[in-house]
Amino acid sequence: MTIRVLIVDDQMMVREGFSVLLNAMPDIEVVGEAVDGRQAVEQVAALRPDVVLMDIRMPVLNGLEATREIVAADEGAKVLVLTTFDLDEYVYQALRAGASGFLLKDASARQLADGVRVVADGEALLAPTVTKRLIQEFSRLGTPKPPSQERIADLTERETEVLVLVAQGRSNSEIATRLVVAESTVKTHVSRILVKLGLRDRTQAAVFAYEAGLVTPGG
């Protein structure tokens, strides 16, 4: 099944470059482009892409606000944020806004395509190296309102263990290997975690784990 992608960036060279790279993949099709956040919101509503590649810094409406509007209109929307810096000050906010992960603009063609596939599949959304940087950033920023401990208490010991591994950027297959269980069992645990915590996807689960203190810079 072909993954339909919308590319959002105010730079023509970036849009054209990503479009060429992705259209060269047999399982990916670029169905549209947008030059700013407002146009992105309109294009998503019209085209219903599987994945939105979203730049952060754009005129009219920035990528952060656009992501917020897109996810508010469709909780199933998958937004992959594009950034020049791996510690972009807006990355944390974008994940809180509902983005499904982020990718550096200097990513190789293979990393770009794999990132699109990962987000489209709802699988491992944050690479472990990126997750480590995010944890450090969470630690630096601090959390003004940590999640309620009652919500964490609703999880079983195994579910908490799975949540921590998800927050560390582990895929279902990696978690299954680590816990010596079937991959289908991991998927069941993840689904139950999302339902119990009232979260929409794995990225929100990772954010929850950081804010709850389940994952630390040293862990």
UniProtKB/TrEMBL annotation:
Which of UniProt's keywords are assigned here? Answer: DNA-binding, Phosphoprotein, Transcription, Transcription regulation
> CDD domains in the record, alphabetically?
LuxR_C_like, REC_NarL-like
Question: Which Pfam families does UniProt cross-reference here?
Answer: GerE (PF00196), Response_reg (PF00072)
The residues covered by the HTH luxR-type domain are 148-213
- Annotated positions of the 4-aspartylphosphate modification: 55
- Keyword NADP on entry: no
Response regulatory domain ranges (all copies): 4-120
Q: Which GO terms describe its molecular function?
A: DNA binding
Q: Which GO terms describe its biological process?
A: phosphorelay signal transduction system; regulation of DNA-templated transcription
Under PROSITE patterns, the record lists: HTH_LUXR_1, HTH_LUXR_2, RESPONSE_REGULATORY
Isomerase among the record's keywords? Answer: no
Its recorded name reads DNA-binding NarL/FixJ family response regulator
Q: Which taxonomic lineage is given here?
A: Bacteria, Bacillati, Actinomycetota, Actinomycetes, Kitasatosporales
